[in-house]
């Protein structure tokens, strides 16, 4: 019995894992050695749109910004699940329709909860 190295699916997985680790390491290491390193005070100042910073950099933001951002990500990622469902709807039949209805109801309940807690209001 002859073992063919390339017919095994794990060979390609290992090659991709090694490339996925090696390429960023090589690129970052090469960049570290090739880039110019000449820091001076003007380069080290952080700025926003060319305006010099004033005051402390540690400013407290309203927590609502973060909550809205997280909710956007949650709803954005969950809407990605609608595409494969729509593509496979013919094969899924009523089971798929019911599963997606449950999925959308859970999303709606989450949105209703956020709305009730007044997370979406800007004060």
Structure notes:
This protein has a single domain, classed as NADH:ubiquinone/plastoquinone oxidoreductase, chain 3 (Methane Monooxygenase Hydroxylase, Chain G, domain 1, Up-down Bundle). It contains five helices and no strands. The chain has helices at 9-34, 41-44, 63-80, 82-87, 89-116.
Low-confidence stretches: none
Looking at how many chains there are and whether they match, the oligomeric state comes to single chain
Beta percentage is under 5%
Structural class: mainly alpha
Q: Compute the separation of the termini in Å.
A: 73 Å
CATH architecture: Up-down Bundle
Number of distinct helices: 5
Indicate the mean pLDDT: 83
**What would the CATH topology be?**
Methane Monooxygenase Hydroxylase, Chain G, domain 1
Tell me, what is the CATH class? Answer: Mainly Alpha
Give the ordered list of helices and strands.
HHHHH
Could you give the topology of this structure?
Elements (H helix, E strand, L loop, with lengths): L8 H26 L6 H4 L18 H18 L1 H6 L1 H28 L7
Q: Brief overview, please?
A:
This protein has helices spanning 9-34, 41-44, 63-80, 82-87, 89-116. With 123 residues, the protein is an all-alpha fold.
């Amino acid at each position: 019995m002859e073992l063919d190295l390339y017919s095994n699916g794990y060979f390609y997985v290992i090659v991709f894992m090694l490339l996925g680790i090696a390429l960023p390491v090589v690129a970052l290491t090469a960049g570290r050695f090739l880039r110019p390193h000449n820091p001076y005070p003007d380069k080290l100042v952080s700025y926003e749109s060319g305006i010099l910073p004033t005051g402390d950099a540690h400013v407290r933001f309203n927590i609502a910004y973060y909550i809205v951002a997280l909710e956007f990500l949650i709803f954005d990622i969950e809407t990605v699940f609608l595409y494969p469902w729509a593509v496979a709807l013919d094969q899924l039949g009523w089971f798929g329709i019911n599963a997606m209805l449950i999925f959308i109801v859970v999303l709606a309940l989450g949105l209703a909860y956020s709305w009730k807690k007044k997370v979406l209001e800007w004060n």
